[in-house]
Amino acid sequence: MLQNEAFEKPPNCWSSETYLVQSSQLLPTIHFLSLIDCSQTLTKVAQTVCQQVIENQLNCDAIQTDTIDRCYTKLSTIPEINLALIIGPIKSALGLHPWLTRLTEFIMIDSYKQMQTTNSYINIVQRYNQIEQRQGR
């Protein structure tokens, strides 16, 4: 299913641990994120907002969640995350972008040993496909 793929480093990459899996077929893009990615992005957002305040482009009282959200979206090169695999004994979303995980489905896996075959990945995608997201009441 995932044949003829090429791993390449994306342009403007903030971390050497972020890679894209791309294929000539219409397959989803996979991002491998590290703990560094999130903190660097949030730091850049804070620097940008502070710079706008210093240059009188933005009033301190006007800074709202939407302001940060727009700035974060502009600076981030990663789209909203649909599925996150958390692998390891610690069940944490630490390192994931908070603005990109609003509708993310998290699947926890105890060990990399459970991910040794192509069928392991197919089973995860099938499990994700069967999940029904409920929003609101």
TrEMBL record:
Q: Where in the cell is it found?
A: Endoplasmic reticulum membrane
Molecular function GO terms recorded: ditrans,polycis-polyprenyl diphosphate synthase [(2E,6E)-farnesyl diphosphate specific] activity
Q: Its annotated pathway?
A: Protein modification; protein glycosylation
Tree of life domain: Eukaryota
Give the main localization category.
endoplasmic reticulum
Query: InterPro entries, from UniProt?
Result: Nus1/NgBR (IPR038887), UPP_synth-like_sf (IPR036424)
GO CC annotations on file: dehydrodolichyl diphosphate synthase complex; endoplasmic reticulum membrane
Q: Which reaction does it catalyse?
A: n isopentenyl diphosphate + (2E,6E)-farnesyl diphosphate = a di-trans,poly-cis-polyprenyl diphosphate + n diphosphate
Q: Which residues form the signal peptide?
A: none
Annotated keywords: Endoplasmic reticulum, Magnesium, Membrane, Transferase, Transmembrane, Transmembrane helix
Task: Give the EC class as a word.
Answer: transferase
Q: What is this protein called?
A: ditrans,polycis-polyprenyl diphosphate synthase [(2E,6E)-farnesyldiphosphate specific]
Can you name the source organism? Rotaria socialis
Instruction: Tell me the classification of the organism that encodes this protein.
Output: Eukaryota, Metazoa, Spiralia, Gnathifera, Rotifera
